[in-house]
Design brief:
Elements lengths: L2 E4 L1 H16 L8 H14 L8 H22 L2 H8 L4 H18 L7 E2 L3 H25 L10 H8 L10 H17 L1 H33 L4 E3 L8 H19 L6 H7 L4 E2 L1 H34 L2 E4 L2 H11 L4 E6 L6 H15 L4 E4 L8 H8 L8 E7 L6 H15 L5 E7 L1 H7 L5 H16 L7 E3 L5 H15 L3
Parallel strand pairs: 2-3, 6-7, 6-8, 8-9, 9-10
Antiparallel strand pairs: 1-5, 3-4
């Protein structure tokens, strides 16, 4: 599966716990006891098959995250605020439309004491909305042909406004890093949901602005002693163009209401003068409803429906973290056997290698590390160890990247192993420790290129045994080594 689909609240909890656990590899903030308790209790509440179905995994992850956060929030109450700030602020959904309505009502005062038949707020509003519809159509076409559409100019500020705060947690830098990571990952995971909610709010705001303009006109007509319609300005001599513009804009409203549109002579008479504004109010109200209010409300409803659907299906990636949880919750104690070739491992390196392997294949896995095979002694070792090679679930050969790969030695060892364990049962993997090679090249500008060339040389030799190596750094990043090993397992089909 490419990812799970969780409800919004459950996805917030799952991503928050994941961020904290990822930034807390030493289990200082969320202890190993906490993690084992959360996994065991979640598994007890709803057993899973092996491999689990998507619904079972979703239920397990939801329960485990809630249980882990119960312990975390008891010790760090600030996390409750982080959870709250991760959600879309409900007040935005009504504050922006109400603000737009108030601005619309205030903008009507720009036209003075009478109704300007060239009402600037409505003309500008209709022009803006027609442009907005054109942009929406272009964006839909671009999306259909696989090109990234441009974002709404107001969407970025809205997304920034609803981004969860990375609350500073005094004395707990690990937890602070986890919260900061959660802010980044949740913003990405909730991106489609946030965009839908922002679109709904902006569409509703546009409709409410138009309603505000109309409400301002109607209130002034209701309480003014004499509310007339006319026009004035520097457009003298352009009566024909004004009549054409009004006929173009108000034609649909005229057809629906039966109110006649102005002729050039009537437009000329209205310059500097006026007539009862009743018919003009009706024409502008219907026009605003046709071009702005109704389309925007429909778009707001569509965006709202999409937001409601997305809130039930926030994607949580099927990544190394999730697969590790499932392995540790479900996995039987497996056996992984590591065979070093041509290098002796000190105790601390053996411990790190054990942790890397367990992180990749499951904490319950029993890891055994053989004494190193001496260079050139592979045939003798194969003859002596042939009987027990197939007992392990994973057989991992550890080579030193600093060594020059040789088909007659390294390749021969892998070919012998492949012949003895066959293609089923035990998985054969190769680990390349690059720590010594990187230490040798430290400070050289060509270090990365030389490492890449050496890895490619190893791949060429190992290709004859159909093995793709995993890079590990035994004195460096254990998490990166575990991810590389897991990817090798996935490529081999042994994960």
């Amino acid at each position: 599966m490419k990812g799970l689909r969780l409800r919004e609240a459950a996805a917030i909890d799952a991503l928050l716990v994941r961020s904290i656990e990822t930034e807390d590899p030493s289990a200082v903030v969320l202890t190993r006891d906490d993690r084992q308790y959360a996994s065991a209790a979640a598994l007890a509440a709803g057993p899973m098959r092996d491999p689990p179905a998507a619904a079972e995994t979703t239920a397990f992850l939801t329960r485990r995250s809630a249980l882990a956060l119960e312990r975390l929030t008891a010790r760090y109450p600030t996390l409750e605020r982080v959870r709250a700030l991760s959600r879309w602020p409900a007040w935005l959904s009504w504050a922006i439309p109400l603000g737009a309505f108030a601005i619309g009502m205030a903008s009507d005062a720009l036209d003075g004491e009478r109704l300007n038949i060239l009402a600037f707020p409505l003309l500008a509003l209709i022009a803006w909305n027609l442009l907005a519809y054109l942009v929406l159509i272009v964006r839909a076409v671009l999306r259909g042909v696989g090109r990234a559409p441009t974002a709404h100019p107001l969407r970025r500020p809205l997304e920034w406004l609803v981004r969860p705060a990375s609350a500073r947690l005094a004395g707990q830098p690990t937890l602070e890093r986890g919260v900061q990571r959660h802010a980044r990952e949740w913003s990405q995971a909730a991106g489609p949901l946030t965009r839908s909610r922002a679109g709904r709010t902006l569409h509703l705001g546009a409709a409410m602005f138009a309603l505000g303009v109309l409400a301002g006109m109607l209130l002034r007509a209701r309480y003014a002693a004499s509310y007339t319609a006319g026009w004035s300005g520097t457009w003298a001599g352009a009566e024909a163009e004004i009549a054409l513009l009004l006929n173009l804009i108000l034609k649909p409203a005229s057809v629906l209401t039966g109110i006649a549109l102005p002729t050039v002579e009537r437009v000329r008479e209205l310059r500097g003068g006026g007539e009862n504004a009743g018919d003009w109010l009706i024409l502008w109200a219907v026009t605003a409803a046709l071009f702005v209010i109704i389309p925007r409300l429909v778009l707001a409803a569509v965006a709202g429906a999409r937001a409601t659907m997305l809130a039930q299906r926030v994607r949580v990636a099927d990544d190394f973290y999730l697969r590790s949880l499932l392995r540790n919750a479900l996995g039987r104690p497996g056996n992984a056997r590591v065979v070093p070739y041509g290098l002796d491992l000190p105790a601390d390196a053996r411990d790190r290698l054990t942790r890397v392997v367990q992180a990749a294949v499951g904490e319950k896995t029993r890891v055994s590390i053989d004494p190193a095979i001496a260079y050139g002694a592979e045939d003798e070792w194969l003859a002596r160890s042939a009987d027990g090679l197939g007992d392990a679930d994973q057989l991992m050969v550890l080579f030193n990247l600093a060594s020059t790969p040789e088909a007659e030695n390294h390749g021969a060892l892998l070919a012998g192993l492949r012949q003895r364990i066959g293609s089923d049962g035990t998985a054969l993997l190769v680990l390349l420790d690059d720590s010594g090679f990187r230490h040798k090249l430290r400070g050289q500008s060509s270090a990365e290129r030389r490492v890449a060339d050496r890895v490619q040389a190893w791949r060429a030799v190992l290709a004859t045994a159909a093995v793709d190596p995993a890079i590990v750094t035994l004195n460096g990043d254990e998490a990166a080594g575990a991810r590389n090993l897991e990817q090798a397992l996935l490529r081999s089909g042994a994960a």
